[in-house]
Write a structure and sequence with these properties.
By secondary structure, this protein is an alpha+beta fold. It has two domains: about 80 residues, no CATH class; about 120 residues, Sandwich (Immunoglobulin-like). About 15% of the residues lie in helices and about 40% in strands. Helix 1 packs antiparallel against helix 2. The longest helix is centred in the first third of the chain and has 17 residues.
Length: about 220
């Protein structure tokens, strides 16, 4: 998705020039730095009157409407916008090539996820080239997002994809760890995406091979 298309969405979604300009400035800065960006806008700023979360990857825009109780729990005050730029990936990622459509993600116990338990569920995918098939060294990556927490948590569930598609389980380590002794509570946004790498045994360059799907879970 180009910046021009992002600008078209921003123009149609926001009801004020100031908030639209603020949103577009974030996406332009993210594009210039080659990083991803997330914004959360209060209902008063939106034409549809709903709290909105938008995640910009540089190639697509993921839009998620939030309930009023989720807005309050995430700390989004009336008439405000929360913006966040992700730091550059280390090592840098290869340019994305979308070989696979990530069709659906379902998280088990999404309404009451225990931080001491593994996060499990299933996802559905479809390959775009049934004859070629996607790379075998793949993982379903999840990025946890909460606007009030600076600690970034990313998980990988390693899987083997086969053409033309199907449904596979995923599993991630518990949120509670020695490195993350005080995980978030309440609603947490999850960004799922399929990524590939030459090897997962050493720190190596990865490549995004699917679209992004966003989900919200309740962490207890």
């Amino acid at each position: 998705m180009s910046l021009k298309l992002a600008e078209m969405w921003v123009t149609s979604a926001f009801n004020g020039l100031h908030s639209a300009r603020d949103a577009m400035n974030l996406f332009e800065k993210a594009a210039a730095e080659g990083v991803e960006a997330t914004l959360m806008a209060a209902p008063e700023l939106m034409n549809n009157g709903k709290c909105c979360l938008v995640h910009w990857t540089g190639h697509e825009l993921v839009v998620l409407e939030l309930h009023s109780w989720q807005q309050r729990a995430l700390g989004i005050n009336a008439n405000t916008m929360i913006q966040e730029l992700e730091p550059p990936a280390n090592p840098r990622e290869l340019p994305p090539i979308q070989h696979v459509d990530l069709v659906d993600v379902r998280v088990e116990n999404a309404q009451h996820h225990d931080v001491h338990q593994r996060m499990t569920g299933v996802f559905r995918y479809e390959t775009r080239d049934p004859m070629r098939g996607p790379a075998s060294q793949c993982a379903l990556r999840v990025k946890y997002f909460h606007p009030q927490r600076q600690r970034r948590v990313t998980g990988f569930s390693h899987i083997h994809l086969a053409a033309p598609g199907g449904e596979l389980p995923f599993s991630y380590d518990p949120l509670f760890t020695a490195q993350n002794p005080d995980p978030w509570r309440g609603p947490v946004v999850l960004f799922f995406q399929l990524v590939a790498a030459q090897s997962w045994k050493v720190l190596t360059t990865s490549q995004r091979i699917s679209n992004v799907l966003a989900r919200v879970i309740e962490v207890a």
